[in-house]
Design brief:
Elements (H helix, E strand, L loop, with lengths): L4 H13 L17 H8 L13 H8 L5 E4 L2 H10 L6 E4 L12 H23 L8
Parallel strand pairs: 1-2
Length: 137
């Protein structure tokens, strides 16, 4: 829904790599930005409060789908990306990522689930793309 995992990953990529990478973020469906995402990203100094969730179709209309790589974080997004690669020459990588919205418990326990996803995505980004450009971390 372009409201939790993808906005986190896109924001971290933008902060870490600046203009050395072009990053887009989209979902299979459009939701509302999750306030827990805003909170856990703020903890690491990244403001995502102005992120507006969009769908793959909206991204295509706004920017085209001229990407070399599509990283998907959920099974529905993986399926959609595979459909797109029938007409778009892009590699697709699937990074299975838990959905923290399913977490139950206190506010702090729920935030911990979001932090775990954020930290998992950060580790995967570093593993995949290497050191941050220009030391912007």
């Amino acid at each position: 829904m372009n409201a939790v995992r993808s906005p986190m990953a896109a924001a971290m990529l933008r902060q870490m790599y600046g203009k050395s990478l072009y990053v887009g973020s989209a979902g299979v469906q459009k939701g509302e930005l999750d306030p827990f995402v805003v909170a856990v990203m703020d903890e690491i100094g990244i403001d995502v409060s102005r992120h507006k969730p969009i769908t793959f179709e909206e991204l295509e209309d706004l920017e085209g789908l001229n990407f070399d790589l599509i990283v998907t974080l959920s099974p529905p997004a993986q399926h959609k990306a595979m459909e797109l690669t029938r007409t778009v020459a892009a590699d697709v990588e699937y990074w299975p990522t838990e959905d923290p919205t399913a977490a139950e418990g206190s506010r702090e326990q729920r935030l911990d689930a979001y932090r775990a996803v954020r930290d998992q995505l950060m580790a995967k980004i570093r593993e995949r793309f290497g050191p941050a450009a220009g030391g912007n971390e």
